């Protein structure tokens, strides 16, 4: 019976290859080795568009490292030459392929490394074709696609939904995707981003990032806004909020921690804050090595804030929760999943209708220094400061209760279970 099943599978794949004659999926490139269809050995390829710095790249590296620690071979397949920080942290240079849109190079790498599962992150390169080779696929939705038109998101969903499994990083992300693409809710699972809790527990913060070195006193309240400079992160709105906060609490300070993804946006925000009444209360730290982030959260800042326009599932939110920090978040990403926690203050979004919100709206709102939720952000920060001792106790309790569930191993185990169970696959 097993041999008959394998024979039928091979016939099916060969028929599809004939249909796709003239593409990379010709008979010459069809992978028909028995291992691809029956082997119990799991080898994973993580497919990305870039692999330098960023929240998505951090999540992918955590998966890569987590799979190897579990005894599962994992590789990163990157579509472009935009690599750097996280590619340099891979265990071996041989664990990275830069395929530059070359289908043959992509397929050959999968064959040579006996990859049985491809896990796509934002990227969709060959996601539909590759299944002809007997490789199974997972697509993880890291963000809401608000910049796509209705037509564009439907076309993208047609590709994404060909995957054996579609996974969202938060309920917020899943609901948005299912509503806008009319995808059945049963098609999409939820697996939150996992974080490296062991690394977060380390104490090796460079002296230049301590409160003392940054010029903060014991009486100062330090807000930490950890996000790259990008329109969707809405740092301009927080500069406007700071102008109002320091009128009531003059010893409040803000640290922007994040690299510059959009230079035009950073220049505009910086130009405004350097002329702002809050200019002496705001500093920017472009980058801190991730091994130092835990101590930075625990000792340098008092309150973690992320009042952004949109999120998928922020690594920084999970890290701040693990480190026991009171938080203020906008009602996006993984914030709704934390609304039951006393230490988490959630404010409204800077726009009214989530599902009709598009890129032109992001570009417009991102430069507003007093968006529609600005007053709510100010009130939220002041409330946390005024009740700081109680907020800290609540934050420590939340960290103790949910800390283990945030670890990268919990995320890896959930993906591993998905692969092992192999249920509800379209084929």
Distance between the termini: 18 Å
The SS-based structural class is alpha/beta
Helix segment tally = 16
Give the uncertain stretches in residue-range form: 16-38, 423-427
Strand content: 5-15%
What's the number of extended β-strand segments?
Answer: 13
With strands numbered from the N-terminus, the spatial order across the biggest sheet is 3-2-1-4-5-6-7
Kindly state the mean pLDDT as a whole number? 89
Which radius of gyration do the C-alpha atoms yield? 23 Å
Shape designation: globular
Portion in helices? 25-40%
**Main beta sheet:** 7 strands, parallel
Short recap of the structure:
This protein is an alpha/beta fold and 427 residues long. It has 16 helices and 13 strands.
Structure notes:
- It is a single chain.
- The protein is of the alpha/beta class and 427 residues long.
- The chain has 16 helices and 13 strands.
- It has a seven-stranded parallel β-sheet with strand order 3-2-1-4-5-6-7, sandwiched between helices.
- The longest helix is centred in the first third of the chain and has 18 residues, at 2-19.
- 44% of the residues are buried.
Descriptors for this entry?
alpha/beta; 13 strands; 7-stranded parallel sheet; disordered C terminus; 14% strand; 427 residues
Strand and helix layout:
Blueprint: H1 2-19, H2 34-38, E1 43-48, H3 55-69, E2 73-78, E3 96-98, H4 103-112, E4 117-121, E5 136-141, H5 150-160, E6 165-168, H6 171-181, E7 188-190, H7 197-200, H8 211-214, E8 221-226, H9 235-248, E9 252-257, H10 263-273, E10 282-285, H11 293-300, E11 303-306, H12 315-322, E12 327-330, E13 344-347, H13 359-365, H14 374-386, H15 388-402, H16 408-421
Parallel strand pairs: 1-2, 1-4, 2-3, 4-5, 5-6, 6-7, 8-9, 8-11, 9-10, 11-12, 12-13
């Amino acid at each position: 019976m097993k041999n008959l099943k394998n024979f039928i599978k091979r016939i099916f794949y060969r028929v599809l290859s004939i249909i796709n004659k003239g593409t990379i999926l010709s008979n010459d490139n069809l992978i028909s080795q028995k291992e691809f269809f029956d082997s119990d050995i799991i080898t994973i390829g993580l497919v990305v568009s870039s692999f330098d710095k960023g929240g998505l790249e951090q999540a992918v590296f955590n998966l890569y490292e987590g799979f190897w620690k579990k005894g599962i071979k994992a590789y990163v397949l990157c579509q472009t030459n935009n690599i750097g920080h996280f590619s340099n942290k891979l265990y071996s240079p041989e664990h990275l392929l830069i395929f530059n849109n070359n289908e043959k190079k992509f397929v050959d790498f999968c064959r040579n490394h006996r990859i049985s599962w491809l896990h796509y992150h934002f990227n969709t390169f060959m996601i539909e074709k590759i299944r002809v080779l007997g490789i199974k696929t997972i697509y993880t939705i890291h963000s809401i696609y608000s910049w796509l038109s209705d037509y564009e998101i439907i076309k993208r969903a047609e590709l994404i939904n060909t995957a054996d499994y579609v996974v969202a990083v938060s309920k917020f992300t899943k609901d948005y995707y299912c509503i806008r693409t009319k995808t059945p809710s049963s098609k999409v699972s939820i697996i939150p981003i996992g974080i490296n809790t062991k690394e977060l527990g380390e104490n090796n913060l460079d002296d230049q990032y301590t409160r003392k070195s940054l010029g903060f006193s014991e009486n100062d309240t330090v807000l930490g806004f950890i996000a790259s400079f990008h329109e969707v992160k809405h740092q301009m709105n927080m500069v406007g909020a700071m102008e109002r906060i320091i009128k009531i609490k003059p010893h409040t300070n803000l640290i922007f921690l994040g690299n510059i993804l959009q230079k035009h946006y950073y220049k505009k925000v910086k130009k405004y804050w350097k002329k702002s009444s809050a200019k002496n209360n705001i500093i920017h730290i472009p980058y801190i090595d991730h091994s130092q982030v835990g101590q930075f959260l625990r000792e340098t800042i008092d309150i973690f804030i992320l009042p952004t326009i949109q999120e998928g599932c922020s690594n920084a939110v999970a890290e701040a929760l693990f480190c026991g920090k009171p938080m203020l978040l906008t009602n996006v990403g993984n914030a709704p999943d934390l609304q039951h926690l006393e230490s988490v203050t959630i404010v409204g979004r800077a726009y009214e209708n989530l599902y009709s919100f598009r890129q032109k709206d992001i570009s417009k709102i991102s430069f507003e220094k007093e968006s529609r939720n600005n007053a709510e952000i100010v009130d939220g920060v002041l409330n946390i400061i005024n009740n700081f001792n109680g907020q800290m106790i609540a934050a420590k309790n939340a960290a103790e209760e949910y800390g283990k569930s945030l670890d990268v191993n919990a995320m890896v185990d959930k993906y591993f279970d998905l692969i092992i169970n192999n249920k509800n696959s379209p084929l």
